[in-house]
Amino acid sequence: MKDWANIIFSDTLSFKEKAKQVFEYQFEQNPVYRRYCEALDEIKTSRHSELVSESHATQNNDSEILKRVQDDRESIPLLPIKAFKDADVTTRTDAEAELIFKSSGTSDMQRSIHRVHNPELYDKSLLKGFRHFYNLDNAVIWGYTPGYADNPHSSLIYMIQKLIDQDNSGLSRFLPLGEPVNPGAIKEVQRQGKQLILFGAAFGLLDLLEMDDINLPSNSIVIETGGMKTHRREISRSELHRRLAKGFRLDGSRIHSEYGMAELLSQAYATGKWFSTVPWMQVTIRNPENPNEILPPYEEGLIGVIDLANVHSCSFLLTGDKGVMDKDGRFKVLGRWNPRDLRGCNFLIDED
Amino acid sequence: MTDTQQRIDTLIKATENWLSDDNLYLKDAIDRTVREGYFSFEDINYAIEAIKKSISILAIEEWVEQAGLNDKHDASDQNVLCLHAGNLPLVGFQDALATLLSGARYTGKISRKDPYLLPTFLNEVKKTDLWSDRDVQWTHRLDDFEGMPHDAIIFAGSESSVSGVKNSIQKLDLAKPDARFLIRTAHFSMAYLDRKDEEALQALTEAIFRYGGKGCRSAAIIVSPFSLAELKAELTNHAKSFWLENPQHEYPSPKIKQQFAYNEAVERSQLWLEYFLLQEGGLELDQDFVCYWIEGDESKLKELATTYRDQLQSIYVTDSEIDLADRDLEVEHLSNAQQPAIDWKPDGVDTVEWLIQEK
């Protein structure tokens, strides 16, 4: 088997070349993705009425499909991310996964399951990715989330644990939930000349602020990991950042965001208003009515992701998130894409 | 003769005139609607025939009686604003008729997606002695009514659209401070198919495919003891025959191809028809031209009726003995899916009864 880590994190290979290799591998080895590509290809070249049969006949010439995407990365089909709920999205159908990540949700909800066959690759992706944006060597990482032992299937908590493990000072840790931050611990971070980086979900961080006044050192960074909409509460990202900056007594520029999910093994970070990706991940904005179409900058659509670290599952994914991109390839996450209520009567002020 | 009876008789007469074969205004409106691409001729014809079939003096009198409408309990002191959607031809007809029947003054915002058909009916009403220009008004632009506050406002909306509509109503001062709102939110219907004879499949075909499946009375979920695979050949033949007689007016977006490919990817049984996708399971209800097939019995039907209660308009059955009364939902015969009775209750609310309620 190829040394995928060397390929994916290579500084010499172009993204296009890496993507091509990963596509070929996943087309060959991931039955779910292969069926998706073949069916899309078949439907493009057939009359609709000829597709009445129960399943697609695999008449397509594989090399033709591969050839079509060879020179055009943008034509690589993006698999809807919900496939992680409906099927086993993996290239290693015969092997037991070493790690299993699940999307958050209640027990009666259908959750995404991401089987990770090469945890070392995820470790490398998350650490190299974090270092792409931050100086991990001088950082103390705090996570105001449940600990890893309580949530072994959370990719976010796994990531925070790995970041914590990199710090030898003993100051990095998960903060106990429901307890105010110990001011002495903050002082100790300062005393050791370290930079504090605090991770937490939107309302978790707001709840932490509710408990006590927290005055973080001015060079600290708070990274919110999303969760702006829950069953009970909803807040906009800008309002959240405003309240976090005020509550932690930090400049607004110290409040950052992380974009990740159980189905992805790479993360994007926003150190300002826009998210940027790591070099082995690319984002495009897709037309929700025609996901093959990439929308121009500043048009809202569905966020499409190519995450090469997903080499053993599927790297080419269409999320259910709404986003917009600027002309430099940075993007914003605007929440979940809510399709208009298409069926039935619906008086729309702009249309009716 | 009572005022109520006078309104019934006059509306029946106006409707007869409107639907008569020599009504050139209606013919012209149909022609323009087809020419300008709003709806197909076949769908318009079907909608008109459905109205013709549903209207009779007896049917209206029954409606009036069950709604409790009489000269003492009417809406004659009210101004009612109807914001008509335009997803189907003449979809606003029942609201307009109910408002006029109730004795209220009617203000209609005619949909720009169905601009010609309903006004031909309203013009017939205005020709009568009972209703004047002041009592029956309509426009295609909501701001034409700016500064005309109403006692009651009727429209169909959704979680995402209601706030925008309400803001516009407030901005244009279209509602009195104590105005009542009848906002309908049901979006689709469900059918239970426990027979696979010709008659049942024919009715199912109409329920799914008529109007491109865009009505809230269109069946978007089919629960059946039979699997989709079992009925594929029959459904394909019925759909093909349907589209031969009723050429599809609107086509699905390319997104549906992705859904087809996705179903293949996750090995979900599906039936791709010329303009529609039927798939087993994967209930998402997030796009047009997709109908969901669920293999199951009456208990599955009841379970889904509970799950989708807030979005569900009607449940259709082939056997009227199925009792879903405890679900507090309309249960109708499958063959009536696209041909509702004139007194049918959108979202379970009798519009006339609602209009005459005391504030």
TrEMBL record, chain A:
Gene Ontology biological process terms from the UniProt entry: bioluminescence
Top-level division of the source organism's lineage: Bacteria
Pfam families, per the entry: LuxE
Domain Acyl-protein synthetase LuxE: 188-350
Gene Ontology MF annotations: long-chain fatty acid--protein ligase activity
InterPro entries: ANL_N_sf, LuxE
Full protein name: Acyl-protein synthetase LuxE domain-containing protein
Native source species: Fodinibius salipaludis
From TrEMBL, chain B:
A UniProt-annotated Pfam family: LuxC
Name of the protein: Acyl-CoA reductase
GO terms classed as biological process: bioluminescence
Entry-linked InterPro entries: CoA_reduct_LuxC
GO molecular function, one term: acyl-CoA dehydrogenase activity
Keywords for this protein: NADP
